Amino acid sequence: MSAGAGPLARVGRVVCIVLLAVLTAVAACQSKTQDPDGPTVEEKLTEAGLRDENRPAKLRIGVYDWQPLLGYVADGRNEGFDIDVARYIAANLGYVGDDKIEWVPIDNVADRLKFLLQDKVDLVVASLSITEERKRSIAFAGPYLVIEQSVMVPEELKSEITTLQDLVDPRYKVCTSTASTSEKLLAERRVPFVARNSDKECFEGMQKGLYQAMSTDRSVLFGFQSEHEDQFQVLDLKLATASNPGVEEIGIGVSKKNPALRELVDYYLYKSYAADRRGEVTAWRQSFAEHLSVLGALDQPEPHDHPDLVDSDAKYPTR
């Protein structure tokens, strides 16, 4: 009997050890869920000042209201891809509906940074490319879109201007916005150009015949073309150089004085990115299909710096 009991006893001990390990793991998980390891979304909302009763009742977001497809006004309502991204972020921060958002119109490139530095807005969602120069002044969340630079010309010139070298011809004046990726690329390509305060100024100049070409993000160019399809043509010209890929990462501008807000925006951009990767229907995907399908198949990019936060609907978000 004693010889036969030995193996059974050993098996019993193994079962007990395994069971104890399982129970310990379950208890640890329960303890971790009840006492999360790491900052929570609610803590970051408080740290960002969004739970302060004395702060403005609305989230102030700087946007363009003149950029077709991206940020414009239709029937008194802000619309466009950038606007939908802004609404998604605002809703997750607790500002659900346009009655909880103050849309602050931005007229030119310089005002995007200026409004953040002057505390006129909480966020800027206005085709704002992430650059090292701008990082010295403001913080960025994202990117939420990665887009190439290109060139648009009047319809009657599309057969004359087919290469970048054609733009060197003194008969053609090229316009781009100040401190843009296109400005740097045109300079590297030794294409003469005129720099203006905004893409809007360049486009209005083209309509008046002052310029024969303009260069900026493809999304912006297709936006202008969408309202004047018979008058302008977006060319498939590659501006990239050996040192500059000719691609802009579009992000959301945040004040450097509020790092918690930047973390929250990046966190929710990442949640959208992760859901898109899983094949779920997201606000980003729906808006892209509605406004920017002309760009072809693009996926939401992964934010560069997304924190691990404990959220009410996802105790332990994984990367």
UniProtKB/TrEMBL annotation:
Keyword Transport belongs to the record: yes
One GO cellular component, as annotated: extracellular region
InterPro entries: Bact_solute-bind_prot3, SBP_3_CS, Solute-binding_3/MltF_N
Record region (Disordered): 298-319
One GO BP annotation of this record: amino acid transport
Keyword Signal recorded: yes
Stretches assigned to the Solute-binding protein family 3/N-terminal domain: 58-291
Family in the record: Belongs to the bacterial solute-binding protein 3 family.
Protein known as: ABC-type amino acid transport substrate-binding protein
Organism in which the protein naturally occurs: Cryptosporangium aurantiacum
